[in-house]
Specification:
368 residues, binds adenosine-5'-triphosphate, alpha/beta, Rossmann fold, four-stranded antiparallel β-sheet, six-stranded mixed β-sheet, 33% helix, binds magnesium ion, CBS-domain, single chain, 16 strands
């Protein structure tokens, strides 16, 4: 656990970067600090590992005040990842990752072995080991930054905009991988971002800060979306928050899934016509996994791959209301495909069914 107690930081020029901050980042959870530029996120983070000293207040690490700790020892317990990875340009990737263990007196061989293990963990091929940072893409460098922070197996991690220097596609990929990694390692993490979508996607809890270094609200992503504390938070979380909050609302059991007739590839035009509801028929494989929708009137002879319309998304019955609604709205037949965890067809839902379920149960349990 990392705990801020009445933390204030005033810089010598009088700027109050952080003002009376009380905050608790629970053990094993990912806490996100989010807020507009200049609201004191980086300052807050750097006070934890004492790269910046607070003007007043106390920060506790597992109930021990950090002010009494040796700063070097403190930093060894805390992994730190910064925006542009901050790698040593003249050291190879493997040496960058092994920096801390080597400093701590581990043997070269052991440190190298561990570094290679970590490379695999964060999705870097072993062949990168002897390259230099400039020979890697931005996203790959970020992975090295994460691996390096994990090298001394710290209980705590601080991450300052770790995914912001890369394009949106790579960013989404790094986020997914990081979530998967965190599920395995369960570190106590504080991550800074100014991107509310990233905060809502990754955070177990999210602290929204306002300029002047004050906490506006600390809540789970779904609470932030459904009950923002004030206008500032509501604005920051965004106008489409009602729709987005459905992304945290479990669909399980609350929407009736209707039966859907199906055909397989190779079916005759007549069979496709007989099984169609309206203009569309759902095509599945031999394992009842949906392949796409087809319009029987376009089928002459037998139903083939070229007849498939692949535009709709499918939703898992155990997924969220948003996925269910999206499946219905994106389906050419306007019937959303619902599958089980093996991808096998359960049936279909209409947007009207989903909206009815949303209206009937406004306080559904959240999905996570
Ligand atoms: N060394 C310093 N001396 C004076 N003022 C500073 C110093 N470092 C930061 N500040 C000011 O403190 C405030 C908070 O800065 P901080 O870097 O913590 O913001 P941030 O939330 O991380 O912003 P960003 O999203 O742009 O990274 C800003 O107004 C900044 O100008
Ligand atoms: Mg910053």
């Amino acid at each position: 656990m990392i705990r801020f107690e009445s933390i204030t930081k005033a810089y010598p020029d009088g700027t109050v970067a952080v003002n009376g901050l009380d905050l608790e980042a629970p053990t094993g959870k990912l806490t996100i600090l989010v807020g507009p530029s200049g609201c004191g996120k980086t300052t807050s983070l750097r006070m934890i590992n004492r790269l910046i000293e607070p003007t007043s207040g106390t920060i506790y690490l597992d109930d021990q005040p950090t002010s009494g700790m040796d700063a070097a020892l403190l930093r060894r317990r805390i992994g730190y990842v910064i925006q542009h990875a901050g790698l040593f340009p003249h050291r190879t990737i493997v040496d960058n990752i092994a920096t801390m263990p080597l400093l701590l007196g581990e043997s070269r061989q052991k440190a190298r072995h561990r570094a290679l293990e970590l490379m695999e963990r964060v999705g870097l091929p072993e062949t990168f080991a002897n390259r230099y940072p400039w020979q890697l893409s931005g996203g790959q460098q970020q992975r090295v930054g994460v691996a390096r922070a994990l090298a001394s197996d710290p209980a705590f991690m601080l991450m300052d905009e770790p995914f912001s220097a890369v394009d949106p596609v790579v960013r989404a990929q790094l986020q997914e991988e990081f979530l998967r990694l965190q599920r395995e390692i369960g570190k106590t993490i504080i991550m800074v971002t100014h991107d509310i979508d990233e905060a809502l996607k990754l955070g177990d809890q999210v602290a929204v800060m306002r300029v002047g270094g004050k906490l506006a609200q600390m809540a789970t992503p779904s609470e932030l979306l459904t009950s923002p504390a004030d206008e500032f938070v509501a604005d920051f979380v965004g106008r489409d928050r009602g729709y987005r909050s459905l992304g945290f609302t479990a669909a399980a059991g609350s929407v009736a899934v209707g039966e859907e007739w199906t055909v397989q590839l190779g079916a005759s035009a007549a069979e496709a016509q007989a099984k169609a509801t309206g203009a569309w028929v759902l095509v599945v494989d031999a394992g009842r996994r949906p392949l796409g929708w087809a319009q029987p009137e376009q089928v002459h002879g037998e139903l083939r791959k070229e007849h498939l319309n692949l535009s709709g998304t499918s939703a898992q019955a155990s997924g969220t209301m948003r996925q269910l609604l999206d499946a219905a709205l994106s389906s050419p037949s306007r019937r959303g495909v619902v599958v089980n965890e093996h991808g096998e067809l359960l049936g279909t839902v209409t947007a009207t069914d989903v909206v009815k379920a949303i209206e009937a149960e406004p306080h559904l349990e959240t999905a996570r």
